[in-house]
């Protein structure tokens, strides 16, 4: 990689096609994990262009730049999967679906790539053998919970190690991770190295259909190398002899897609696959749809600026709620600073507290400040779980109103 930190994407990450068409450019973003302590003086930092490109051949929407994994996923990676109820419920539902549709035996091995704190595997534990793979220190939490975890990146070498020491896997999962790993064709080959002949590969990724329909430009950051449609996943997996047998939309991350794949002709293809492929053809696989997305992104930025301008002119205070990585994209693209949003609040256990939002001087503080200060507005950066957040904040005593930035900026009155 150039300068050991990034490389420009010139050929499609799946099929190698060139040239690629630019869909959206959001400016330059710092790494989403680049938190600095409150009080630290601003200094020179690296930022990377945030652009997404489209491949007409395999329909993959992808990042225009690949940043080194050690920059994007440091050992101190702060994201904790189990903190989100929607994800906990989703993984419980996934386990139930796998069990009812395909069955599971005590001796079956389930491997989770990008296993984080073991949230997904906790549902399979005690019903099958489990093994997590994650490079971050957060994997130590899973180990403490009794979930064996390799603290490393999933590579060909790790795949060979798993096969040698644990055997082949009946199920391999990659949830919110399959779009984050470079050299995706090598990744699929490594998965096949470990997968049993009749095994299942299950992946969940943020879904391009919902990204475009719900105007989720804030999901564009350097952790997300690829924004999959079912068409692009089908092209990728079929290249390696895998067949998609089931696909469904799920609510996580404001709209994701769950896909089941197996070696060709091992299982019947369910009606869900052609149905979703047909929906994509009608809604997102056109130049017009992508151009409309770019236009709506620009208008959402202007609408949010106008909404915040009016609030600040009236002397209103705005506190942000939650510091997800997508929040940094929103803040930087819209041009929000500490004069517009006084602070961003996180739950007491968050390692982000007493840090600045990356690339800004907006402080991240403990959530109790919301109830002590009672600002007029709470801006929900984790807007994809608006209902959950609004209910929780009301129950805890917040009396102000809520700003939901996307898909279209709006205010929810606190009645």
TrEMBL record:
<dbReference type="GO" id="GO:0032259">
    <property type="term" value="P:methylation"/>
</dbReference>
<keyword id="KW-0808">Transferase</keyword>
<dbReference type="InterPro" id="IPR029063">
    <property type="entry name" value="SAM-dependent_MTases_sf"/>
</dbReference>
<dbReference type="InterPro" id="IPR038576">
    <property type="entry name" value="Methyltransf_Zn-bd_dom_put_sf"/>
</dbReference>
<feature type="domain" description="Methyltransferase putative zinc binding">
    <location>
        <begin position="12"/>
        <end position="73"/>
    </location>
</feature>
<dbReference type="InterPro" id="IPR013691">
    <property type="entry name" value="MeTrfase_14"/>
</dbReference>
<dbReference type="InterPro" id="IPR013630">
    <property type="entry name" value="Methyltransf_Zn-bd_dom_put"/>
</dbReference>
<dbReference type="Pfam" id="PF13489">
    <property type="entry name" value="Methyltransf_23"/>
</dbReference>
<dbReference type="Pfam" id="PF08421">
    <property type="entry name" value="Methyltransf_13"/>
</dbReference>
<feature type="domain" description="C-methyltransferase">
    <location>
        <begin position="251"/>
        <end position="407"/>
    </location>
</feature>
<keyword id="KW-0489">Methyltransferase</keyword>
<dbReference type="GO" id="GO:0008168">
    <property type="term" value="F:methyltransferase activity"/>
</dbReference>
<dbReference type="Pfam" id="PF08484">
    <property type="entry name" value="Methyltransf_14"/>
</dbReference>
<protein>
    <submittedName>
        <fullName>Methyltransferase</fullName>
    </submittedName>
</protein>
């Amino acid at each position: 990689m150039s300068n050991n930190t990034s490389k420009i994407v010139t050929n499609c990450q799946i099929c190698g096609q060139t040239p690629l068409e630019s869909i959206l450019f959001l400016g330059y973003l710092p790494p989403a994990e680049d938190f600095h302590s409150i009080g630290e003086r601003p200094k020179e930092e690296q930022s990377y262009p945030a652009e997404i490109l489209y491949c007409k051949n395999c329909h993959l929407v992808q990042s225009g730049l690949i940043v080194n994994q050690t920059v994007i996923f440091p050992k101190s990676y702060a994201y904790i999967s189990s903190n989100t109820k929607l994800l906990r419920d989703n993984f419980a539902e996934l386990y139930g679906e796998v069990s009812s549709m395909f069955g599971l035996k005590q001796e079956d091995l389930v491997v989770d790539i990008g296993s984080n704190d073991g949230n997904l595997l906790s549902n399979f534990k005690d019903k099958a053998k489990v093994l997590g793979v994650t490079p971050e220190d957060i994997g130590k939490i899973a180990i403490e919970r009794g979930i064996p975890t390799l603290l490393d990146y999933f590579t060909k070498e790790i795949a060979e190690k798993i096969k040698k020491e644990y055997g082949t896997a009946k199920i391999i999962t990659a949830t919110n991770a399959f779009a984050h790993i470079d050299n995706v064709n090598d990744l699929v080959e490594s998965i096949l190295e470990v997968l049993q002949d009749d095994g299942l590969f299950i992946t969940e990724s943020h879904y391009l259909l919902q990204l475009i329909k719900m105007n989720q430009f804030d999901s564009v950051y350097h952790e997300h190398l690829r924004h999959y449609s079912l068409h692009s996943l089908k092209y990728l997996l079929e290249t390696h002899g895998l067949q998609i047998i089931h696909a469904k939309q799920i609510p996580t991350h404001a709209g994701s897609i769950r896909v089941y794949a197996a070696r060709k002709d091992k299982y019947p293809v369910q009606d869900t696959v052609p149905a979703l492929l047909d929906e994509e053809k009608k809604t997102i696989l056109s130049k017009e749809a992508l151009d409309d997305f770019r236009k709506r992104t620009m208008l959402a930025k202007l609408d949010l600026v106008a909404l915040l301008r009016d609030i600040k002119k009236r002397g209103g205070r705005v506190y942000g709620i939650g510091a997800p990585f997508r929040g940094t994209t929103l803040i930087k693209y819209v041009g929000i600073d500490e004069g517009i949003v006084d602070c961003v609040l996180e739950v007491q256990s968050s390692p982000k507290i007493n840090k600045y939002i990356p690339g800004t001087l907006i402080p991240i503080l403990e959530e109790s400040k919301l109830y002590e200060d009672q600002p007029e507005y709470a801006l929900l950066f984790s807007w994809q779980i608006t209902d959950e957040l609004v209910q929780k904040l009301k129950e805890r005593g917040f009396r102000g109103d809520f700003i939901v930035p996307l898909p279209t900026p709006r205010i929810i009155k606190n009645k």
